[in-house]
Amino acid sequence: MNTLMRLSLQFPQWRTYCIKQCAFAGAEAAARGKPNYEEFIGNHHQQAQRSIVVQVSSEKSYAELYNYCSRFGHIVTVQHYSVQHEDELHYMLLEYASSEEATAAISSSAYNAELSSSGGGNGVPVRSPFLWFRAPAPGAGRRGQPKLANNQKAHALHTIYGTRALNHEALKELLHGASSIDQQLHLLYERTCLNDLGVRMRFLAALQVEQAISGMFPEALAQPFGSSVNGFGKMGCDLDLILRFDGKTTTTDQDIQREASRLIYHTKENLSNGRSQTQRQMECIGDMLHLFLPGVCHVRRILQARVPIIKYHHEHLDLEVDLSMSNLTGFFMSELLYMFGQIDPRVRPLTFCVRRWAQSCGLTNPSPGRWITNFSLTCLVMFFLQQLRQPILPAIGAMVKAATATDIRVTEDGINCTFARDMERVGFQSRNTSSLSELLLQFFEFYSQFDFHNRAISLNEGRALAKPDHSAMYIVNPLEQLLNVSKNVSLEESERLRIEVRNAAWMLESEVENTTLSESERREQSWGLLNLFKHPEKSVIRPNMFFKPRMVEVSDLFDKSQSQPPAINYKSPTVRQ
Ligand code: GTP
Ligand code: MG
């Protein structure tokens, strides 16, 4: 009997739960206005099942497509986006009122006979939600199709221009136009965070994988995690996916009954070594994605990494995907971050700013290596908000203490991810009234003085602990407390962080004090976050208020050949250190 079964017998009142079955989600979420993580995931999973993506020749195809697709059911929303390929390719993401209607639209679709009859190659006849709206057959014309009333069009079409990140110039322009640093912080968050279309596209990518293997694995679940769902994702962020063949995070009543069944499935024997088993399976899934799934291209298998992953690009969604099969805590870690983001409206804008600042001064890098990751950086922000005299976030320990039987979650490999999901039970209320810009400055000041040499950061306790080993930076992994999330960070990179936070504190303090700029000066010169995000040629230690003044250039501290990250062409987001 596995851990989940045991727990469910131990706690008969434990509400059985399965991500796929979050059907209750919509109504509850609407009633409260703020969906919890499971509701958020459940809603989007269902929304993906009600959706199709149709490639069209241009945005002007909207009325014709709307008319055509309306024959299968009631269309709730249509969102247009384009992907820059050799040409600009246009797509419409349509959401129907029910999954049956979307299925009817998919089932009505034909395979591309034109390709085979013209000798242009035969498409593999795979069924998926990714479709193409071809021109009408000669003679069939557009005659007889009802014209779309203007109000109908306005109601249905919600065009969101693009799914890609704001470019540097547009962002600069936006921040110039703000009236204060606080407004800059808000604008940065609102205009760079992953939008609704971005989330829908990510759940469709997950559904495509899930449906592709559903014949053999009817319970399969491809579960998005990481920044696509934790509320800290920006436009264009990658999609982290965990693929589970059995699709469950906990046990249902039916499973408990099945335990007693006398009929047992014949199955293939597992390889003795779990890791090589996962690697073989992933190799096979990688081939399947590569050979059969429309839109999937540039499939790379990174199977020797600690957590093996398959990376691919989805050309219809313009999306990078990292698929793993064995990083089960990632989903619950994302839930914790999602909850932190929901607790206080300052958490996400602050984290966005810190992440962008770190990117602009080269502290983070898209390749894996000895530099701090976005995830570790996010942990630093959460910890800072926990340890304030007036904390803005509770310690995870307090959430664990407040957990009840309904909160029990244990991963298949036995890692306990139990913590209270209902913040009212935690009873945490923040009395902190600092503005975002004040918090940002305090963040930089706090880490300027933090003793990374001797102290470890514990989000579980909400305070620093003695460092248990000699890693340059130690962030206790919140869900596996014997592990260090930032074990990869080298001494040089840790020092660089210290230097950069000092520089940022120094710079931001003068910016915060400088409130005398007129509106025209703000438009013309660099100020506030614009100065924080400036990419200096060399980072310089400023004379500062915390340490005895000295002038040192970061690059002088290290071997120059090491100051640039080596080119590594893969990223393993799920490495468990
Ligand atoms: P971006 O992809 O950079 O936008 O952020 P992300 O939060 O998605 O980070 P990433 O793709 O690197 O990782 C995805 C998720 O995996 C994170 O949100 C964490 O939940 C988890 N994760 C990433 N790195 C680590 C790590 O070093 N240790 C542990 N335990 N979990 C990690
Ligand atoms: Mg990610």
Describe the structure.
The protein is about 40% helix and about 10% strand. Strand 8 and strand 9 form a beta hairpin. The strands form 3 sheets. A 5-stranded mixed β-sheet has the order 5-6-9-8-7, sandwiched between helices. The protein has 23 helices and 11 strands. With about 575 residues, it is α+β, with helices and mostly antiparallel strands. Helix 3 crosses helix 10 and helix 9 crosses helix 14.
Average pLDDT value?
Answer: 82
Low-pLDDT residue spans: 1-31, 536-577
The coarse overall form would be globular
The end-to-end span amounts to: 29 Å
* Strand segment tally: 11
**Structural class, judged by helices and strands?**
alpha+beta
Largest sheet, strands/sense/barrel: 5 strands, mixed
Q: What strand order characterises the main sheet?
A: 5-6-9-8-7
Bound molecules: guanosine-5'-triphosphate, magnesium ion
Q: How helical, in percent, are the residues?
A: 40-55%
Backbone CA Rg: 26 Å
Provide the β-strand percentage band: 5-15%
Oligomer: single chain
Q: What is the count of helical runs?
A: 23
